Amino acid sequence: xxxxxxxxxxxxxxxxxxxxxxxxxxxxxxxxxxxxxxxxxxxxxxxxxxxxxxxxxxxxxxxxxxxxxxxxxxxxxxxxxxxxxxxxxxxxxxxxxxxxxxxxxxxxxxxxxxxxxxxxxxxxxxxxxxxxxxxxxxxxxxxxxxxxxxxxxxxxxxxxxxxxxxxxxxxxxxxxxxxxxxxxxxxxxxxxxxxxxxxxxxxxxxxxxxxxxxxxxxxxxxxxxxxxxxxxxxxxxxxxxxxxxxxxxxxxxxxxxxxxxxxxxxxxxxxxxxxxxxxxxxxxxxxxxxxxxxxxxxxxxxxxxxxxxxxxxxxxxxxxxxxxxxxxxxxxxxxxxxxxxxxxxxxxxxxxxxxxxxxxxxxxxxxxxxxxxxxxxxxxxxxxxxxxxxxxxxxxxxxxxxxxxxxxxxxxxxxxxxxxxxxxxxxxxxxxxxxxxxxxxxxxxxxxxxxxxxxxxxxxxxxxxxxxxxxxxxxxx
Length: 477
Fold this sequence. Notes:
Shape: globular
Strand content: 15-25%
Number of strands: 18
Largest sheet: 10 strands, mixed
Oligomer: single chain
Number of helices: 16
Structural class: alpha/beta
């Protein structure tokens, strides 16, 4: 047996051997297996083969995971990954500044820029223990942009759902522009087999819905998704227009169902949440961004009260942290506060176990990948993370679920495996040239800013924290 701890070179030399993770605190995310103290995880090929104490396998590459937490990789159900090149520029913005500024920049993105941003954002996610995400791509103006986005996801090694959201011409509100027919080419050329069990990158349709388009356009987008047999992910129910009963309007037209993920939903009516639950829909909560961009209190506890187990998402890398630890903690603490001082809606209590499940198994369910990932269950793909609990912030491990949700951070991620392949070991991503990825993303930012400099609606994009895009309803004169 080859025993190693945090040494990626040994893993590379023994790539075809089974991998045996020994003596970890194994947080399986599987209701039948629970948390196993001093447990082992055996990975054979792409899959988890066994999870139990005391596994012995001749010829395995053994990872000594003493004082480590083994857990399923996080599943982020909604991220605008391309925005990583513009990280933190929107830290003080509201939603109108975001819509004007960041979405305004898409007019000046080349395919090369789309590739650079998505690759940076995908690697950032992997570095922080996110093994699966839905890339809500609304920066794909041309076929060349789309091809670059798909290639970046594939080059990253991430398990991903590419959700085609179009380009800037579709994002003038309210938009009467139909979803581009190029998605038919994309479906055929890149995703002819859209099976998540066989492909690391699959496809969905990111649509605008009734709040960001007209109802006839929304109906056309839904028909397009049905034609291409693609799941739908849609923003709705946020800001004050979220009170306009968008889910009820969709339901009246037969547009609700199990293939639809509703992103945000902060101000949906209780009856609309019941509709989502009754029709088998799924939801994605982006608690950090929803609070920061003034979208309304996250609906997490409300969804639980109506029988919906939501998933979690980072959402906007240009405004918030790109790691799921931050999202989990924000989600949990907001719900704890609202139990003490309620808002206008009744809520169910939320536990750390709930939040952990939202970030793993429920995320996989939302993306239609529950049979593939989201828990350390034998037979599922080996998408897993090791957290180093030697750190004083995690030691001793008294309550593993509580430690993951309340104490851990991205710096604790020692190892990441996707589909049984090591992506990060010993605290270091195994990508061949991270510095080049950083340089290209910085160059993209500079080039986009230069091309956008004369746009009066953007107010001279620049770094430093003082850029404030003009509001959409503001006269620049």
